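Protein 1 of 2
SEQ + STRUCT:
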Amino acid sequence: MSALRNTLLLAAVFLAIILIAGSILRFELTRQVFDAIDDDLALNAQRFESAATASGPGDSIFNNLITAHSGVSFGYLSALDENFGPVRSVVFETLGFQNLTRAELFHDRRFAPVDSDNFEDHDAYHEWEDDPDLWRVLVTDIGPDRLAVFTPIHEIEDALDLLPQIMWPITIATVMATLVVGVFLGLVQQRRINKVQSAFEQIAIGNLGHRIQPQSSRDDMDDLMHGFDTAATRLETSVQQMRDFSRNVAHELRTPLSELHLALDNIEDGPEQEKAIAKADKVMRTFDAILRISRLSAGTDQSHMSPIDLNAIAQQLYDLYTDSVEEAGQSLTLNLGNCRTVTGDRQLLLQLGSNLIENSIRYAGGGALVSIKTDGNRLTIADTGPGIPARDRMNVLQPLFTLDGSRSRQGNGLGLALVKAISDHHGAILELSEGKEGGLSVSVFLKESSLAPRNG
């Protein structure tokens, strides 16, 4: 369903947007937090540097650093490679900011400067003994010496790592809610789309009176339904006017043709009379076929349909046309398969089969083999004549179409058109193809019936 697919697609896009936004959020938070930490470390490094440069003769620079301590731990490396504090000497080799683990930052031995009796009780000495695993370190020069200031960042990293754990449940819950709401709205919309599709199918099979009839114009879909109903109404009116016109013309011409036929009967017998009567009969048959096609195209009432044994139809056609086929120098075969009961009008189905067999008699030529075959819900009538080119197989189903583009050949171009009209009237599938031995094969796939066929 297109609405459901759109819902899933939008949910996937929404999920991707959340993931990208979450990644950007974590990156930005990380940057801002570390910028704040770095600013704080730089400020404290400046404070320690000021304390160191303020020391007078005989003062201990390290004691001055302890005095300047303000909550950030530090280590000190003198120009004489004397390491004061817990920081490994290798840390002082790299100037600037870096993230180090506890093992990378601190050495194992414990110490207290000899010239600072109170250092052991100072926070600056004890903070490094805590258990944090990750530290932010700034190493900077103080004259010929170097200073390292550091602060634990494991809590910040833990908090940043906690962000995805918070975001994932929110994301999943949001996406699930989006899917539920989207699927519900999609199903509602799909039902409306199905109504429009069903309406098109009804129009396609000839039910021009079908309407969707939306209750109100709430959105574009309702406007589309109203537009469809308006177009269907106009189409029904136009088609009905065309049908009425063709039917009226046929009726109006039938009367003078009948009178002409009677007049021809009353004149002197002879070859010219027979030709004139034959031509009048051909014209009357043409109009009869046009009227029949018009009635079938206009009729949507299926109440006259009943369960029919397709084998019985095939057998009756065989019995009716065996002699006619033989008189035309052809042969007729019957192959009855394991046939199902179908729904249809017996007389119309006999008319369909008669038209196909008469077409074979007329066009297949002498020596042709005409066959009637049933299989399941399919009735097939084929011949071994010249057949119909593939490009013309759809055209021959149109009224008054002939292969040579003229009216000079036998027939009036309405035989297969009537077959098509009867097939459409039954909601069947009509298939024209080339037979196994050449020629033309016409198959009609009828709707199956769950009821037993009626007698007769």
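Protein 2 of 2
SEQ + STRUCT:
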Amino acid sequence: MPINAHRTRVKICCISNAQEVSLALKYGADALGFVGPMPSGPGVVEDDDAILAMTKQVPPPTATVLLTSNETAGDIVTHVLACGANTIQVVNHVSPKIYEDLRLDLPAATRILQVVHVEDEYSVELAQDYATKADSLLLDSGRPSANELGGTGRTHNWELSRAIVESVTVPVFLAGGLNAQNVGDAIRTVRPYGIDVCSGVRRGLALDEAMLSEFMTAIASR
């Protein structure tokens, strides 16, 4: 059965405290995202020990995803080991060559989620290349050339995202400007394995229960 025929998974990102962990779990999140030091975007947690305390709260099978802007294998491995996450989300367009070192040095169970910032047609080719190295992809709306690596609150060209989903065999998460009002259209257009959301379920900087409930309902009823 094609992976897109399954239930749409949900990753709640920018989790920044124990209360948000509990709230995301209450509403059935499949994955929780914790943002390490980052040049842009909300939800940054500078202290690795604080992230570690939160990842320890999360029971399996829920994934704990550490977002890292590090660009070398050594720095990425050090970061994920310090934070205790079981998945690493690489938000930069790093050289695919570092994957060999990551596979050697990360714990065997650690999954690698590679972000592809969908800016133009080249993004499809880039995603296809990463799909041969990473365990899954996440399509976002950043601009690495401007040191903007996510958390923009903007959508991107979903037709390009759909082309990526249709051309790779690994699971693909869709991110970028998603909320309860547009997530149904996004899923119908792109047909991703999963959805990633941050600002669309937040009021100000805080995870909002009413917005989260509305978002999860919109996904379930799309």
